[in-house]
Design brief:
The chain is an alpha/beta fold. The chain is 29% helix and 22% strand. The longest helix has 14 residues. The N and C termini lie far apart (78 Å).
Length: 443
């Protein structure tokens, strides 16, 4: 064994280089793929930006998403020399996409690996990894998502890993071996942690409605933000919940610490948390580190509706921005401006419907205040101009506001109007009824 350990350590040393040296492996015209959020290699990407700025590279395509850091590659002076292509828009790229300096690819997380490998030419795959173990393996830790499997199946010319001692080592199918990589760089920076998001009274009301419909032994997928945090508070009296979720969150750790999550009743991959990426605070990252109860897999597996549906009593909770009276849900844009992305929302809506006893919930506040200070309804006769449909009316099951739960799946237009009016703000219900009559949805 010691000889093999020495072999992998020697190979590591041979492939170890500085970020500037690794940037020389890139060629003009390269398509680069990186994982989401903390999986993006800051040191390497900034070195590539430096080389572009110095005239050494041009016509670079950089594909990633959920950008939680600012990279030099995003600087406006590189527009025209590099194309930033986001699969899920986040704060660091939102302005650039909105201004047309960057671009967005509509995609569902469950199909991103295929999107990358079948619809594009991939020249370089790069990712942040945990330190190498004695067998020569790195773990992609809290960011398996699409980056790891894209590197496996897209046949890139170059694979570069950025080793970070702060990246958790996780179990599951997410490792890359030193023999597979072209180059290794090291950059031991802290992982980005999400700030605390205050819970509102509306969040509490929505959380309570959903919690009442979740049974003991259910398997849950919840997103991020104040509403999911609120929901977690109302699940504290539940028993034996399981986890199958594209994203692992701090609130799940809180539920585990309270004895709520055990995964003992899961019929598919029992006793295991199953996730694809984790984004939260150090508490979450420390929890998943070398925790045999947690398995991290590619989104191609975790977000496959067929796989999701193998979990009985699968519960999916995600946010949406606007719902029309036919049931179309727009969850990713404000007008024509891309605000987030499709993500895994549709994957889990479809997957929970396949699940025995499954339920999917799309949540939103009933109103918002516009830029003129006027209150507007988020439940509308038809989607606002430019809003993109994320979940079609044929797919949506439950829609929840602070006024209640609308059951839409399999219902006709008359019933949908009645259900959605019941959860709209009371001030807008007469207007919605009048509009529904104009559209001949109701007599």
């Amino acid at each position: 064994m010691s000889n093999m350990v020495n072999k992998w350590e020697e190979l590591y040393k041979q492939k170890l280089m500085s970020a500037d040296e690794a940037a020389k492996l890139f060629e003009s015209g390269d398509g680069i793929v990186a994982p989401l959020s903390n999986g993006q290699p800051l040191g390497l990407v900034n070195a590539v930006a430096k080389r572009i700025r110095e005239g050494g590279l041009t016509d670079i395509l950089y594909v990633s998403g959920v950008d939680v850091r600012w990279f030099d590659l995003y600087h406006p002076d590189l527009v025209g020399k590099v194309t930033i292509d986001s699969g899920f828009v986040a704060p660091a790229t939102r302005h650039g996409v909105g201004q047309g300096m960057f671009t967005y690819t509509p995609c569902r997380l469950g199909e991103t690996v295929d999107m990358i490998s079948r619809c594009r030419e991939v020249d370089v795959c790069t990712m942040v990894v945990s330190p190498m173990d004695k067998h020569g393996f790195f773990s992609t830790g809290c960011n398996v998502d699409w980056g790891w499997e894209a590197a496996k199946v897209s046949n890139p010319r170059v694979i570069i890993v950025e080793v970070n001692e702060n990246m958790p080592r996780t179990y599951g199918n997410n490792q890359v071996h030193i023999s597979e990589v072209t180059a290794v760089i090291e950059n031991h920076i802290p992982l980005v942690e999400l700030p605390h998001i205050p819970i509102t009274d509306k969040d509490e009301k929505i959380g309570r409605f959903i919690a009442e419909m979740i049974e003991d032994g259910s398997c849950i997928q919840i997103g991020i933000g104040s509403m999911p945090n609120s929901l977690a508070n109302f699940l504290m009296d539940k028993k034996d919940l399981g986890i199958h979720s594209e994203m692992l969150t701090d609130s799940m750790v809180d539920l585990y610490d309270a004895g709520v999550i055990s995964c003992n009743k899961k019929n598919f991959m029992p006793y295991k948390w199953v996730g694809s990426f984790a984004l939260g605070t150090r508490k979450l990252y420390d929890f998943i580190h070398e925790n045999p109860m947690v398995e991290m897999h590619s989104t191609k597996f975790v977000n496959d509706p067929y796989i999701i549906g193998k979990n009985d009593n699968m519960i999916s909770v995600n946010g949406t921005m606007e719902v029309d009276l036919s049931g179309q849900c727009a969850s990713e844009s404000i007008g024509f401006m891309q605000y987030t992305g499709t993500g895994g929302q549709l994957d889990f809506v479809q997957g929970t419907w396949r699940s025995k006893g499954g339920k999917s919930f799309l949540t939103l506040y009933s109103t918002y205040t516009d830029k003129n200070g006027e209150v507007q309804s988020k439940i509308v006769p038809s989607l606002s101009n430019g809003m993109f449909t994320t979940v079609s009316r044929t797919e949506v099951q439950y829609v929840v506001t602070e006024y209640g739960v609308a059951d839409l799946k399999g219902q006709n237009l008359r019933t949908r109007v009645k259900e959605l009016m019941s959860i709209a703000h009371p001030d807008f219900r007469p207007w919605l009824e009048w509009q529904a009559r104009k559209m001949n949805f109701i007599p």
